[in-house]
Write a structure and sequence with these properties.
With about 260 residues, the chain is mainly α. It has one domain (about 1-260). It is about 75% helix and about 0% strand. The protein has helices at about 1-10, 15-25, 35-55, 65-95, 95-100, 105-135, 145-170, 175-190, 200-210, 210-225, 230-255. Helix 3 crosses helix 6 (about 105-135), helix 4 packs parallel to helix 7 and helix 10 (about 210-225) crosses helix 11 (about 230-255). The mean pLDDT is about 85.
């Protein structure tokens, strides 16, 4: 299936473009600010959540700006959450189209991940604006070249999860409700708004195996601390992305022919 994705991507490029364009039009329909909300939303959410956690709950991270620390975790986790949620419902929401014409079914969850990926790239603009404004960046190091690689494998990981969820949701519609609970638990299990140092040493190893922790912490190491993520962490970043995409592609391919029977 992965080979077919590369082969068919150019063939169905127009369809992919139309699906992504449709998502933008639907999301920002009748919105005065439109795409600007992609820039404003992370800033406003960051301000609200950062004030709540830093002022009300007195959460802080030694040696770094907490606003920037929180926003890095927030935008990465928010991308994963939005992409997997929309990717999960992509097949069910397009049953009417799938039953009329032949279209490679993986295009639907993939288009959702790409659409959310574009939004994610837009959110990097206010992120780096805040980083520059707060003086977080002292020197632009060579390690910044690793950020696109980290984000790319994060995209692969998200796409693989979306393939799995979109397959399960066709046969088991309760997944839409269960996944909301899973995401909430996952959010609290990921150091988005807190420092992993507050976790007992005996549990830190388990928390560090969390894929989203690897992507978020790798980005924080580069942006906040100006250092290269550890070799083990970079290895996990690659492995989580490649393995999850591979597994997701296999699961999706094995069951895609049965989707029409559950429309």
């Amino acid at each position: 299936m992965i080979k077919n994705i590369a082969h068919n991507f150019k063939r169905y490029q127009f369809l992919m473009h139309e699906l992504i364009s449709r998502d933008f039009k639907v999301k920002y329909k009748r919105s005065t600010l439109g795409v600007l909300w992609s820039l404003l939303h992370p800033i406003l959410m960051m301000l609200v959540m950062a004030v709540v956690f830093s002022k009300m709950f007195r959460i802080s991270v030694t040696g770094v700006n907490y606003f920037v620390y929180f926003e890095i975790g927030f935008i990465i986790f928010n991308y994963f959450s939005e992409a997997t949620n929309t990717g999960m419902s992509s097949i069910v929401a397009n049953f009417s189209l799938l039953n009329k014409v032949y279209i490679p079914k993986y295009i639907f969850p993939l288009s959702k991940c790409l659409f959310c990926g574009i939004n994610f790239l837009l959110t990097l603009i206010p992120l780096f604006a805040v980083i520059i404004f707060t003086g977080t960046i002292k020197d632009i190091s060579f390690y910044y070249l690793l950020l696109p690689i980290i984000f790319f494998f994060g995209f692969l990981f998200t796409t693989g999860i979306s393939f799995i969820l979109s397959t399960i949701s066709v046969f088991f519609r309760d997944m839409f409700y269960i996944y909301g609970i899973i995401l909430t638990i996952w959010n609290y299990a990921t150091p988005v708004f807190y420092d992993i140092a507050i976790i007992p040493d005996s549990l830190q190893t388990i928390f560090k195996l969390n894929p989203l922790y690897c992507y978020i912490n790798s980005a924080r190491d580069i942006i906040l601390y100006g250092k290269c993520p550890s070799a083990i962490q970079l290895l996990l970043v690659v492995l989580y992305g490649v393995v999850t995409l591979f597994v997701g592609a296999i699961v999706f391919r094995r069951h895609q022919d049965n989707f029409v029977y559950y429309a």
